[in-house]
Amino acid sequence: MNAGPHAPSIAASRAGRLALGIACAAFSLFHLWTAVRGPFDPLVQRGVFIGGAVMLAFWVQALSARTVALRIGCVFFALVGLYGGVHAIANHARFMDVMNDMLPLDMWVALVFFIAILVATQRLLGWALPVLAVIAVAYYVFGHSLISGLWQPPPTSLDTIVSTLYASTSGVFGFMADIGTSVIAVYVIFGALLMATGAGEVFVQVAQIVAGRGHGGPAKVAVVTSALFGTVSGSAVANVMAVGSLTIPTMERAGYPKALAAGIEASASAGGQIMPPIMGAGAFLMAELLNIPYLTIAKSATLPAILYFLVIFVSVDLYARRHRLGRDGASVRVRLEIDKAIPLVVSVVTLIGMLVANYTPTYAGAMATGALLVASAALRIGTALFGHTRDGLTLRTRTFLYSVGHGLADGGKGLIMIAVLLGCAGILAAVLSASGLGSKVSSELIGIAGNNLLAALVLAAVLCILLGMDVPTTASYVLTAAVAAPVLTKLGLPPLTAHLFIFYFAILSAITPPVCASVYAAAAIAGERFWSVARYAMLMAGAVYVIPFMLVYRGGLLLQGSLTTIAYDAMITGVAIVAMCGAMIGYLAGIVPWFARIGLFAASVLFFVPGMQYDISGAILLGAILLMQVIRARRTVVVAAAPGVRNHG
Predict the structure, then answer these.
(1) Residues pairing with 591 in the sheet
(2) Among 27, 45, 26, which Cα is nearest to 37's?
(3) ω before 593 within 30° of 0 (cis)?
(4) How far apart are CA 73 and CA 641, in angstroms?
(5) 89-98, 109-118, 128-137, 479-488: range with highest mean pLDDT
(6) Which of 204, 313, 501, 596 is most buried, judged by most C-beta within 10 A?
(7) Mean pLDDT: which of 452-461, 462-471, 625-634 is highest?
């Protein structure tokens, strides 16, 4: 029978995708192997990471290319990416020799490799980051001859530029690539394998058990699910696409408007990047930049992460009460799938235990991945082998191996964007350092802020959101930290506090209009207009924008100080969050009139200002408003119950 003229092309496409999946799985296995045995020489390890990712990025593009010319271009750049990495690997000993001179071939390879990275970054992440990198390199190369005065960079030769940006352990193969290949890669693969072995279903089941009851049950399930999923995904958009495809339709069926359902999911998904134990890639970069253990960052981020989701949870609850979105009793009749839940628990406990025991994050991640696979195999294959389901052994084994292979392939694909991002950001960071541009921008920011910490914090927040408009959280954090963190530390802020402040706003850039990737993703799932979804996302998460400032003025939120200080700061911040959420939603123990909403905003602002007198003033104002709301609610009940009173709807 004739299969038709398109059969060869379909078969070729399937073969190409299968080969791509195998290559991505091999990419993952390489990083798992080196996580256990230790990395190769720096340029070798990072050459595989960056060069392999650029090659795979264009391979993916080639498979989806619509024209022959575009496919040929993708294949060309894929080969360029591959050779750029191989050339660095083959010449790593010569490049690391301080007496080495760049050869003409080195110059050409570096040039086309940079172009390949810039194009790959544009294809995957948009224009912002590659344009900034091009401007920075142009400033580094031509700035000395074109600019005079304070902003003039030092003179440099082409040999030095190529050596700095390509043929050394700075630039494209610098510390960012090192963190990517040695730490971030393991956790991306771990997260992909968790999802492939059923963690996603477990997260949804746990969320339904925990949050299924009460007002707005489906929306609360979405918030809890996004928090759990975010601990392993580290990506707002990935969180929306994975969780939102289930939670947004569920909320719609429960009576939520489409735009509201999408806004809740978008705002909740962004917070997963700061949720321990596996935060976003930016947390590992932060550990390297500050030279402190990752576990210290995870501990400090715990309360801020809880407060983030408390804002969304409280907003959902108040909105549901105001608009009478009722309980969803059916959502709590859920039983955990033990064969999926136990491997998840075993792997996460292994990870936390090894981090607490002071093993490196890389080795801890590798061992957690191993524990996940062993526990999954024991429960799925072992039960068939030793139980009463021997006939299903072959099927279970095949299913398990397929899920592992699928997880490894997904992990490799997840590494593509991160490696390309870190390669391009590494170029930009190296130029900021080598040219002195970063310190000059920092000096200008100090001048604008006028040595005022609050003004500097606002500038850093705005800068972070602006830089995060068209780049992922990690890039927004790295770029802002390079120029704003020194300003904040010079004004007396502890380095960890400064970086967590910036990281928090980098996360918020994912839901802040006009360009917010997680909102776009949620709007696409819901089939709603972007601005409608963005409005609801900001409504649900509005109080979150205050939390980073609270981190600065209330050190207890970062677990700094005595237990009393930590508990007091957490309590005051929680009360401030409830007050602000009540003001934004317009409901707190009943519908809040306009003048009381202003009072709730004022109370939350008073809690924000450090000082016991302000806390007492805020508590008195909030207490008065709550008392007024209770009295109004009782009067409404009395009037409604009075004889002869009719309900006119």
Answers:
(1) 587
(2) 45
(3) no
(4) 76
(5) 109-118
(6) 501
(7) 452-461
| Per-residue pLDDT, 647 | 47
The CA-atom distances, in angstroms, between 52 and each of 26, 82, 173 are: 11, 6, 13
Q: Is the pLDDT score of 191 beyond 70?
A: yes
What tokens appear for 119 in the block? 């194009």
pLDDT above 60 for 517: yes
The C-alpha angle 525, 529, 534, rounded to 5 degrees, equals 90
Number of H helices, E strands in the chain: 30, 0
Question: Could you identify the residue written with the tokens 């996940």?
Answer: 372
pLDDT band at 642 (very low <50, low <70, confident <90, very high): low
What separation in angstroms does the CA of 378 have from each of 118, 127, 374, 389, 431? 45, 47, 6, 14, 50
Residue 142 and residue 389: Cα distance in Å, rounded?
Answer: 71
Contact call for residues 420 and 57 (beta carbons, < 8 A) = yes
Q: Is the pLDDT of residue 608 over 50?
A: yes
3-state helix/strand/coil string of 579-610: HHHHHHHCECCCECCHHHHHHHHHHHHHHHCC
- pTM, two decimal places: 0.80
DSSP per residue, 414-460: HHHHHHHHHHHHHHHHHHHHHSSHHHHHHHHHHHHHTT-HHHHHHHH
CA distance 4 to 253: 42
How many whole angstroms separate alpha carbon 449 and alpha carbon 635?
Answer: 51
Scanning the structure block, which residue is given the tokens 């292979």?
Answer: 405
**Rounded-to-integer distance, Cα 530 and Cα 514, Å:** 9
| Residue 122 DSSP SS3 | helix
* 102-127 pLDDT per residue, tens: 889 999 999 999 999 999 999 887 78
Kindly report the number of other CB atoms within 10 A of residue 139's CB atom.
Answer: 18
SS3 156: coil
Confirm if 186 and 369 have CB atoms less than 8 A apart: yes
Produce one character per residue of 303-337: b if its CB has 16 or more CB atoms within 10 Å, e if not.
Answer: bbbbbbbbbbbbbbbbbbbbeebebbeebbeeeee
